[in-house]
Amino acid sequence: MKYVMLFLGLLALAFITFIGFSVAVLFLSYHHHPQAGFAEDTLREINWSDPNLRGKLAVGKLIEADANCPFAQLQVGNPAGVKKTFAILTISDPCITAASYAITGQVRYSYVKDTGYLEIWNYFPDGKMYFSRTLGDSGPMQSLTGSSGWRPFTLPFYIDNTTKMRPVKLEFNVVLPSGIVYLGPLKLVQFKEVESAVTKTNTASNAWWTDRTGGLVGGIAGTAVGLTGAAIGVLAGIGIARKVCLSLLGAMFVLGIASLAVGLAALASSQPYAVYYPLLLLGLLCSVLPAGLFRSIKRQYELKELRKMHAMDIK
């Protein structure tokens, strides 16, 4: 029985290590994009507290910067429950010269039912117009659904090589079925590389770390917890190193509580998904599992001691 438990523990160790490293590699490859040759040119910066905008905004409510948010916000709400398009901003003569450009910024939202999104309409000299919309499932082009803290968004547009026309006007809209949307400062940028508008990785300006770092933290922490759990399983299965095993359980529990506290603080301060999710997941695993296993593992060691004492009595 001893060797069966040892084999199962080692098997679990190898499996958890493989899964942890695989998750880390997949996360990093999904979120990290090489930026060699990347060049961005900022054409316009839109700050909602700009005096030049006062009186020109047809919709929305201006919220000035305060202790909770370092920049001015534009609040747009739709309590009616019927999808509505809010014309936020028109940029005439945007001075775009590149084939690839985007409107970028920060957005947060609450109580959005169904699917809302941000959009830009691109008007060209020949009278044609085209749109871009944030209708993705994740990333900077994610749609507006439910509630979210501050996160970056990108509305890119690419003009193919068959034309040299550039837009003469841009219209930026919020399409909202219900709920409230808050917009932070916006930028109109253009890119020298055609792929950059789509592949550029965005990170909230107040984020504790980037998406790539979040993947690294999650992968390393998950692997470390898996290795520790496998070591505890092996030690408890064989019935040796009781103090080491119980100390590892206690350390995992303390780490879990600390990680939960930091994760909740990140969530409360509107940190992006890549910051709060690894912390909350690590905290949940490291606090629940040791608490659930502590008594059974301690009992197993006690039974081992009783069997050893009984064997000595028989002799």
Key terms for this structure?
elongated; 5 helices; Jelly Rolls; alpha+beta; 9 strands; 315 residues; 2 domains; nine-stranded antiparallel sheet
What does this protein structure show overall?
By secondary structure, the protein is an alpha+beta fold. It contains 5 helices and 9 strands, in the order H-E-E-E-E-E-E-E-E-E-H-H-H-H. Strands 1, 2, 3, 4, 5, 6, 7, 8 and 9 form a 9-stranded antiparallel sheet that branches. Strand 5 and strand 6 form a beta hairpin. Helix 1 runs antiparallel to helix 3, helix 3 packs parallel to helix 5 (273-314) and helix 4 (242-268) packs antiparallel against helix 5 (273-314). The longest helix has 42 residues, at 273-314.
Radius of gyration, Cα only, in angstroms?
Answer: 27 Å
Number of H- or I-type helical stretches: 5
In CATH, the topology of the largest domain is named Jelly Rolls
CATH level-four homologous superfamily name of the largest domain: Galactose-binding domain-like
Main β sheet profile: 9 strands, antiparallel
Q: Tell me the CATH architecture of the largest domain.
A: Sandwich
- Class from secondary-structure proportions: alpha+beta
C-alpha termini separation: 23 Å
